[in-house]
Write a structure and sequence with these properties.
- The chain is mainly alpha-helical.
- The chain contains 7 helices and 6 strands.
- The strands form 3 sheets. A two-stranded antiparallel sheet has the order 1-4. It has a two-stranded antiparallel ribbon with strand order 2-3. Strands 5-6 form a two-stranded antiparallel sheet.
- β2 and β3 form a beta hairpin.
- α3 runs antiparallel to α6.
- The radius of gyration is 18 Å and the shape is globular.
């Protein structure tokens, strides 16, 4: 097995095994997880394919098994299944052990974040990955401000965001230090925390948020 596959498998194994734990019994929510994956992963995979084919980022052949769909390694496609599974599992564990509550967030914060990200995107428009991620983040906060989002008003959502950066940092460090994933330096700011591009932190935040929002939607809809 190659590095990327090993990282995915090691990330998935423990959450999957504990999904059958009697009290939380996360496995019962599997259909909501799959619906969330389907809705969120498709646009992200399209984005991934476009950026990979244009060499904005790519994958080192020595760290992947070599089987691809279009330009994406099979591990990269599995990433958009494994990561949301783990994230949503952790979210449900948090909800089980921590009492949730509404927090008083000023909606103006979302509007400010939206405007700030959009302005930065325009300033850094020649940095394709940076500008794209800033626009995605801007749109996320724009919709949160104008259409409201009850999930963002819950304490446990932000607990999850905070906790999720720990495994994100560990996994992404290996992905970017070996590197399993490489970036076109002309398309990013070049700002990194150790080896992780600063853009990846926003990517993780928005992707995690979209998965949780869609998961909650499907679960509450039932």
């Amino acid at each position: 097995m190659k590095t990327y596959f090993i990282l995915l498998l090691s990330s998935f194994l423990i959450p999957f095994l504990f999904s059958f734990e009697r009290q939380i019994f996360f496995i019962k929510n599997l259909k909501f997880v799959f619906k969330s994956v389907f809705v969120v992963a498709i646009p992200y995979l399209i984005w991934d394919e476009i950026f990979t084919s244009n060499k904005i980022w790519g994958f080192s052949s020595e760290h992947i098994v070599g089987f691809k769909i279009l330009n994406l390694p099979i591990e990269e496609i599995l990433f958009f299944v494994v990561v949301p599974y783990v994230i949503i599992f952790v979210y449900e564990v948090i909800n089980f052990y921590l009492k949730d509550k509404v927090i008083n967030l000023q909606k103006k914060i979302f509007l400010f974040a939206s405007i700030l990200n959009f302005v930065l995107a325009m300033i850094l428009i020649d940095k394709t990955y940076t500008a794209t991620q800033l626009i995605v983040t801007s749109l996320f906060f724009f919709f949160a401000y104008f259409f409201g989002c009850k999930t963002l008003e819950r304490k446990n959502f932000w607990v999850l965001i905070f906790i999720s950066f720990v495994p994100f940092f560990i996994v992404n460090y290996f992905l970017t230090s070996l590197p399993v994933v490489w970036y076109n330096e002309n398309k990013i700011t070049g700002l990194r925390i150790i080896t992780i591009p600063i853009e990846d932190f926003l990517y993780h935040f928005t992707m995690t948020s979209f998965y949780i929002l869609s998961y909650n939607y499907f679960k509450l809809k039932k």
